[in-house]
Specification:
Blueprint: H1 5-39, H2 45-56, H3 61-79, H4 86-109, H5 115-139, H6 145-156, H7 162-183, H8 197-204, H9 206-222, H10 225-228
Length: 229
């Protein structure tokens, strides 16, 4: 078959668009986690674990995030590397540091926020993380190392349906995060800051919101200009 320069250009354009969507999606998700931390009304299950570790281990959050994800990446590479892609590494190396920078910046801008500001931050964080997730997931260039764990257990090892396996891994993260938080000297009354209403909302309501932004934003962005005409 001959070389089709038009098809090649379209292929490169689509993949560049996918990479850009992945990069923007990860950055948006990272910013949202920083906003969640300012809201202090609970974060998503994996970030609950990270919050517990962050309180216990005296290193920067960005570096800690990379260490934890390298461990999970090693598991994925051994068990089933099918789910690992460029998006996995963008998430691994960028998300933690951008989250740390966002949180540090917002702490200087939003000092001692009242409950109304915290609720507003929670709402903004939820909307932003759903937009970022829609971009990141629609680009389809790999999943995060944490997402890969449940996929491997359910799809590769056939140990149960994905949704049920994911519930179990999420519960383990929340329980471990709370335990580590208390082990680090945190007060029981402060547990809702890492495992609270925000955790419940992200667990049960993110799916429909992500699908809404998939339809309204992510999928139209992925289409070529020619296809959209």
């Amino acid at each position: 078959m001959g070389f089709d320069i038009k098809k090649t250009k379209n292929y490169l354009k689509t993949n560049c668009r996918r990479i850009l969507m992945t990069l923007v999606g990860v950055v948006i998700c990272a910013i949202s986690v920083g906003i969640f931390k300012i809201a202090a009304l609970g974060v998503d299950p994996f970030q609950s674990l990270m919050a517990g570790l962050d309180n216990l281990i005296p290193i920067g959050f960005g570096t800690l995030y990379i260490i934890v994800n390298v461990i999970l990446l090693t598991f994925s590479l051994i068990a089933d590397r099918h789910y690992i892609g460029i998006a996995t590494f963008i998430n691994l190396f960028l998300l933690g540091y951008i989250t740390q920078w966002t949180y540090d910046f917002l702490q200087k801008v939003i000092v001692n926020p009242n409950i109304y500001i915290r609720i507003l931050c929670l709402v903004v964080g939820i909307v932003i993380i759903c937009i970022g997730s829609a971009l990141y997931m629609t680009a389809d260039l790999g999943v995060s190392t944490y997402d890969a764990v449940a996929l491997i257990i359910s799809k590769t090892w056939k140990k149960g349906k994905f949704q049920y396996v994911r519930v179990v891994t999420d519960l383990i993260c929340v329980i471990l995060g709370c335990a580590l938080f208390l082990l680090a000297g945190g007060a029981v009354k402060d547990i809702p800051t890492i495992a609270g209403v925000g955790t419940i909302i992200t667990a049960f309501f993110m799916g429909p919101l992500i699908e809404f932004f998939n339809v309204k934003i992510a999928r139209p962005l992925l289409k070529s200009k020619k296809a959209s005409k």
